[in-house]
Amino acid sequence: MLRHFELFLACRYLKKKRLAFFSIAAVALSVAMLIVVSSVTGGFVKQYRVACHSSYGDIIISADSLMGFPYYDELVTQARKLDGLREATAVIKLPGLLRIDQPGRFKLFVKGVQVLGIEPKSYSQITNFKAGLWKQSKLDAPPSLALPDKLPDNPYLKGVKLRGACIVGVEVVCNRSSDASYHRKKDLYNSPVIISVMALKRTGLIDVDATVRYPFLLIDDFEASVPLITEPTVYIPFALAQKMSRMLEYHDDDAARTKPARASQVQILAEPDADLQELKKRLREIWDKIAWDNAYLGGAMVFETWDEQEGIASFIAQFERERTLMTILFGIMGVVSVFLIFCIFFVIVTEKIPDIGIIKSVGGSSAAVGRIFFVYAGAVGVVGAFLGLAMGWPFVVHINAIHDWVAQTFDWRVYDAAVLLFPYIPNEVDWYATTIIMIAALVGSLIGSMIPAARAALMKPIQALRYE
Asked: Three-state DSSP class for 368?
């Protein structure tokens, strides 16, 4: 049990021995450094996960083929009846080109894009689609891909037979600046654009003579927190995407039957506490029954949760590995503080040998002497850990403001949002990792003092009093 005089001496040594301040500084700097590294690298992982999760359904059912799959409407209807599911919507994905050609106003602009055919209302319930829209996010009504009742006064719309409206990922038409802002050309909106898609024959072969080109009205753009997700994407009405991709219902003369319409995906929104793996299993059973009842022998179907998709899982795993690597590297640097504490405490114990002799000569036990220096080391660890927290926490919270100040004052920008994946540096403290770091700092301080404390505890009183 810790006695009063042991605590008194430990605190007095901490106040009087300025050499111990170097130990506190070493612990504080190590803790602050690890808090910043862990929070920033962990923030990148969290930011990417949140952005991906908010841009996809919890469960994605897709065809392993550009031809899509039929009976998606029946799948959506039955999925909505399942306990634990909130919403389901069909999506069509197809590669395409977006072209803007307005002489004297915009230069010829052609860009490869991924065309997404969606039902805006249900799609925005499953994803953060509405929240990311530049114009429609401010409206109370659900997002829309319908043409306005009255077309805008734009000379380039004269003589153009618009097929529908479209929304583009902001990165399609705008470049991101180093401060993560976009310089939108407002005249570009409410202007016609041409979307072309590759036409497939019903046999699955490319129909080189029938490329589909539809004029659309560009009405809005979508901005995600991670631009990589929406950089090449254009959103159009589901019915038009189905027509452009030739996934409409048709009559097969050879088989003397009507072939149902097809879709590329069905995206599912689950309840927050739902077991996604169990739901995925139940959805697969529903689809197997639908396919069996309709004698469908098409291509393989892929059932994935949002984080199991190809690309997302590997990206998240890579971020996690980089976070672990950075933490290990800076943690190794933090181990230096343990050796520094060992050296400093060894010197302090050497200086306090006469005091040790006096304590033992008046009845102090070896354990009491050891506890004095052990408590002393614990106090160094606690003070250093909280001082490191006091330095690391504000730095993480204000890291973007600090970075901008350095960029403006010294013209030195370390993080360039124009070329990097994320628009800003994550600035939320990872409290779980911070708690572990602070406990590790305390444990490290105690470990560093063990040998000096043991040396002091095992010293005989007569040797200590005669020490010079």
From this structure: helix
Tokens of residue 211, six digits? 């490329």
pTM: 0.78
Amino acid at 88: A
pLDDT tens per residue across span 346-390: 676 666 666 666 666 656 666 666 667 777 777 788 888 899 999
Gap between the Cα atoms of 356 and 359, Å rounded? 5
Task: Please state, as a whole number, how many other Cβ atoms lie within 10 Å of the Cβ of residue 204.
Answer: 10
- Contact call for residues 173 and 413 (beta carbons, < 8 A): no
- Rounded to whole angstroms, how far apart are CA atoms 115 and 110? 14
pLDDT in tens, 82-103: 888 899 999 999 888 998 877 6
Report the interhelical angle of 366-397 vs 431-458 (nearest 10°). 160
For residues 220 and 173, give the distance between their C-alpha atoms in angstroms, rounded to a whole number. 11
pLDDT value at 283 more than 90: yes
Which tokens in the block code for residue 277?
């793996």
- Rg (the chain; Cα; Å): 33
Bridge partners, 212 (sequence order): 197
Question: What is the distance, to the nearest Å, from the Cα of residue 453 to the centroid of all Cα atoms in its chain?
Answer: 46
- Between the CA of residue 332 and those of 27, 241, 294, what are the distances in Å? 13, 55, 62
